[in-house]
Amino acid sequence: MTARQRGGRAAQAEERREAILRAAMDVIAERGYRGASLAAVAERVGLTQPGLLHYFPSKELLLVAVLEARDRWDTAAVPTQRRGDWRLRHLEQLVDYNASRRGLVQTFTALVGESVTGADHPAQEFFRQRYSNARAVFTEILAAEFGERLPGGLTPDQAAPLLIAVLDGLQIQWLLDPEAVDMTAAFRAFLDLLGTTEQASR
Amino acid sequence: MTARQRGGRAAQAEERREAILRAAMDVIAERGYRGASLAAVAERVGLTQPGLLHYFPSKELLLVAVLEARDRWDTAAVPTQRRGDWRLRHLEQLVDYNASRRGLVQTFTALVGESVTGADHPAQEFFRQRYSNARAVFTEILAAEFGERLPGGLTPDQAAPLLIAVLDGLQIQWLLDPEAVDMTAAFRAFLDLLGTTEQASR
To answer: Which residues bind DNA (chains A, B) (predicted)?
Structure first.
């Protein structure tokens, strides 16, 4: 095989992987976490189940890849050079967007709940890293925008884990009782409390 | 059977139920969510598995009863006549206490994650009710203590769902990375932000 052929095969495999992830997202959107079986995803993307297992050896690893892809696609829209307040407002839009994709939020919540049950769970390392990165990134964004203290009084490294906790915790309440819980309004109230919204509207 | 015999049997069944719940808590503390099988709990309490199934027809229903019992026992220590600020500080102590009972927190997080996956999950109705009650109770406590606005600026019914979201979200981060996340300190920072701690130290 020539180098060009190898490059072509790698690109083809990458394309196929992306097609599987898009198909999995569609299946999740339509049928939720439980309905997103490997069989359903394989059928959607026109693969046999062994063919799908070649790319993703288990349902858990496929779902981890779906959640990674969502993070990648969601943040791709955010210019890295923009100011921190803009990125916090983007986060508010993201909460609103999540309210329109219930199956994906359900999948996230169910998988993170499974992952805490043991160090051998295939998603645990992904989530540990994801939260560790998220705390570091939010701390950095908040420090760049507000310096040592946010207007509400917290330091950036106090605010970051709370910001993430509020996002996760509101999703649980909203999934269980969408009529009673308005995720976007509740998250905006939390940003008001941090004092980041006053800053943004200056 | 006489009325006295029937009463005696009901009391005996109630005692047996409580003994099963205590045994289940011990097993959860030692072995975590996954280790808390019906077989392990039956063995601990000296019942056959069919004997245990007579009281709790499934692992999910046993775990729901364990979480209900925890809520009951945790709040039994709080005099209902005490002021709201005292109850918020009790909540801070409860977060600290939870940091010493990892298996139970893991069980809560795993079961709530499962419960959002479908209306037919045996724990979904329990959690929906639990969150609905918790939002109402916290709103009432905060309104009694602070009136229409908390010192930090939120209304009681804005603060209540956020308070619960922070509790749940911090548990997730702490379960995944106990070295990196100090639940008690983070929760105290959130109470500072709400402004309830200033009030309490007056």
So the answer is: 37-56
- Is B114–A115 a contact, with Cβ atoms under 8 angstroms apart? no
- Chain A residues within 8 A of B177 when measuring between CB atoms: 128, 131-132
Distances (CA, A) of A198 to A85, A151, B27: 10, 8, 49
Task: Kindly report the CATH class assigned to A73-200.
Answer: mainly alpha
pLDDT in tens, A51-103: 999 999 999 999 999 999 998 888 776 666 555 556 777 888 999 999 999 99
Domain spanning A1-57, CATH architecture: Orthogonal Bundle (1.10)
Per-residue pLDDT band for B4 (boundaries 50, 70, 90) equals confident
Q: Is the pLDDT of residue B200 over 50?
A: no
> CA-nearest residue of chain A to B28?
A117
Q: At what angle do helices A124-146 and A84-98 cross, to 10 degrees?
A: 140
Which residue is closest to A162 within chain B, CA to CA?
B166
Q: Where are the beta strands (DSSP E) in B35-155?
A: none
Q: Cα(A154)–Cα(B185) distance, rounded to whole angstroms?
A: 12
Helix H or strand E encompassing A80: none
Residues of B in contact with A128 (CB under 8 A): 176-177
Give me the pLDDT at residue B78, please.
Answer: 63
Instruction: State whether B168 and A166 contact (CB < 8 Å).
Output: no
In angstroms, rounded to a whole number, what is the distance separating the alpha carbons of residues A116 and A168? 14
Domain ranges of chain A: 1-57, 73-200
The C-alpha atoms of residue A148 and residue A137 are separated, in whole angstroms, by: 15
**Residues of B with Cβ-Cβ distance to A161 under 8 angstroms:** 170, 173, 181, 186
Q: What is the pLDDT of residues A98-123, one digit of tens each?
A: 999 999 999 999 999 999 999 999 99
Q: Which CATH class is domain B79-200?
A: mainly alpha
pLDDT at residue B85 tops 80: no
Distances, alpha carbon B166 to alpha carbons A1, A28, A137, B66, B129, in Å: 55, 27, 19, 22, 18
Give the total residue count for chain A: 202
Indicate the helix (H) or strand (E) that contains B201.
Answer: none
For residue B193, give how far its alpha carbon lies from the nearest alpha carbon of chain A (Å): 7
Orientation angle between helical segments B124-146 and B102-115, nearest 10 degrees: 110
